[in-house]
Inverse folding.
C-alpha cells in the first residue's frame, strides 16, 4: 500500500522500518529531518512536511509525543489534512487526549477521511519486533482496510469502540498500572522494614491474588532501588494526565491515579523522569526512611 | 502425629478434617462447642477448652478470627499455654497482628514451646482442597517438624523469616491487593462512562503490563455491579488494619492502602461487609454516578 509515516522517534522509526521491510511504499517525515535518513537509506521516500507526506497516500500514520504535536502535524498550516485525499485513512498511534482525538476525527470526517486512534503498549522492543498490543477506536470498516498494516506492527489488534475509545483504553491501562505500582511499592517497603525474606516473599505471592505483571517484573527494582528502563516515568505521567482529564470530562473520580500522578510529577521535577516508572517506589521508600 | 486444633470456622473445620483424614490423631476445640460435632463424627476427640485441647499434643493449630481471639485461646485463663508441653509446637494459621505474634511467641519460647505464624491465602476452597498458600514465620527447625502436617493443608509452604514474618507477608499480600482492586475499579469506571467496549478492553489489557489476578478474576464484578464471594470485605478490611498498624510501628507510610481501608470501612458500616472485596468498585462507581 501507499503509506505515509509522520513521527520517527523511538517508537515511530522502527514501525516505519517494519512497514518498509514488509514491502509497502513508504514516505516518511520527521520534524527533525535527519531522522528520516536511515529510513531513506532503506528505500523510504522523504517528505518536507506532514502535508507532503500525506499527499497521494492511502494510509497515513502519525506517531508523536503528545496532543499538541498531533494537532500540529494533522491540522497545522502544513498539516497532513491539507494533503490527505478523500477515502484515505489516518491512523494515529500516539498516546494523546481522547477528546482531542474526537475533534480531529470529526474535522477529517467532514473531508472524507477516516481516522483511527490506535495507541499501543509494548514499548520500543514491541515496536522493533512487531509485537505491540494495539487498541483501536474509530470506524470498523477503516480498521479492516488498514488491518494488514497493523498486523505488521502488532501481535494483538483490538477494536474497542468509536473514535477516542482506543485512547480511553490506553488511559485505562495506565490507570490500572498506576495503582498497581504504588501498592506493590508500599508492600515492598513494609516487607523491607519488617525484615522479611523478600525473595521468599516474592515466591509466596507469585501464584495468589496479589499476582500481577508489575509484581513479577518490577518488584525487584523496588527492592534494589534501581530503576532501569522499562517505560519512562515522564511518559507515564503524561498518560495519567490524559486519563485524569478524560475522567474529569466524564465525571469520574480517580483518587488513586491522581495520587500516583502527583508522585510521578515530583519525580519528573527532580530529574528522574527518564527512569523506569517503577521508581514510584523511590518516593515510597523515602517516606519509609529506606536509603535510596 | 498427636494434633490439637482450635478454631473450627469456615477455614479451620475443613483443615482439621484434612488432618484427620490424613491419619493423624486429632483433638478439636471450638468456642461454640456444636461445631466440634461433625469432626467428632469423623473420629476427632473433643476438648472442653484450649488448655485441654493442647494437653499431651505434639502440635497445636489455632485458626481464629482476629488478634484478641488468638490472645484469648493461647494466653487466656483456660488458654493453650496452660496445656502445651515443653517441646510442642504451636502453629497459628490465623491472620493477626505481627507484633502480637512476636509477643506470644516470646512468651511461649520461655516455656519451651516453639511458635510458628503461618497465615494462609486461598480461601475456603483452598482449605477444603488442601491447596492453600502458607507463609511461615518462626524457627526453621520447628517448621521442619510440622512440615508434613502443613503439606496436608497447603500446596506452597514458604518460610519468610523470624516470628511475625509470616503475618507481615500476609499483610503485604493484602496491601498489594488493595491498590490493585482500587485501580482496576477506577479504570473500569472510566471505561464504562467513556462508552468503551469493555469486553474488548479486557481482552486488550489481558497480556500487557496491566495484567493481574484481580483484573482477570474480578474486573467483571466491577462492570456488572455484582460481588459474589470470593473474599469478604470485612475480613480484608481487618487485614488492612493489621497491615497499617504494622506499618505505623515500622515507620512506613502506605497512603494507597489507607485509602482503600477507608473505602472498605464505609462499605462494612453500610452492611456490605459480607460481599466480595471487589465491591470496592461500588464506591468508585458511586463517585462516578454509575447506577449500582
Amino acid at each position: 500500500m501507499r503509506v505515509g509515516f509522520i513521527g520517527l522517534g523511538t517508537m515511530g522509526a522502527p514501525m516505519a522500518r517494519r512497514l518498509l521491510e514488509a514491502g509497502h511504499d513508504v514516505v516518511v517525515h520527521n520534524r527533525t529531518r535527519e531522522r528520516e535518513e536511515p529510513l531513506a537509506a532503506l528505500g523510504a521516500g522523504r517528505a518536507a512536511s506532514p502535508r507532503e507526506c500525506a499527499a497521494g497516500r492511502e494510509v497515513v500514520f502519525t506517531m508523536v509525543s503528545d496532543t499538541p504535536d498531533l494537532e500540529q502535524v494533522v491540522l497545522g498550516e502544513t498539516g497532513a489534512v491539507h494533503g490527505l485525499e478523500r477515502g484515505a485513512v489516518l491512523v494515529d498511534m500516539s498516546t494523546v487526549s481522547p477528546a482531542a482525538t474526537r475533534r480531529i476525527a470529526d474535522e477529517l470526517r467532514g473531508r472524507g477521511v477516516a481516522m483511527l486512534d490506535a495507541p499501543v503498549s509494548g514499548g520500543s522492543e514491541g515496536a522493533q519486533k512487531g509485537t505491540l498490543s494495539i487498541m483501536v477506536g474509530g470506524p470498523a470498516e477503516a480498521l479492516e482496510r488498514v488491518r494488514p498494516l497493523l498486523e505488521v506492527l502488532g501481535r494483538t489488534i483490538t477494536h474497542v469502540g468509536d473514535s477516542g475509545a482506543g485512547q480511553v483504553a490506553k488511559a485505562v491501562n495506565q490507570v490500572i498500572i498506576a495503582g498497581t505500582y504504588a501498592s506493590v511499592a508500599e508492600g515492598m517497603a513494609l516487607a523491607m522494614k519488617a525484615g522479611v525474606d523478600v525473595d521468599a516473599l516474592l515466591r509466596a505471592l507469585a501464584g495468589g491474588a496479589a499476582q500481577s505483571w508489575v509484581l513479577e517484573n518490577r518488584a525487584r527494582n523496588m527492592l534494589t532501588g534501581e530503576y532501569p528502563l522499562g517505560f519512562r516515568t515522564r511518559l507515564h505521567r503524561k498518560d495519567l494526565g490524559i486519563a485524569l482529564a478524560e475522567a474529569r470530562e466524564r465525571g469520574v473520580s480517580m483518587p488513586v491515579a491522581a495520587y500516583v500522578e502527583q508522585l510521578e510529577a515530583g519525580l519528573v521535577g527532580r530529574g528522574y523522569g527518564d527512569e523506569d516508572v517503577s521508581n514510584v517506589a523511590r518516593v515510597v521508600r523515602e517516606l519509609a526512611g529506606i536509603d535510596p
User: Anything to note?
Assistant: Strands of chain B lie at 2-6, 25-29, 45-46, 59-62, 89-92, 114-117, 120-121, 132-137, 154-161.
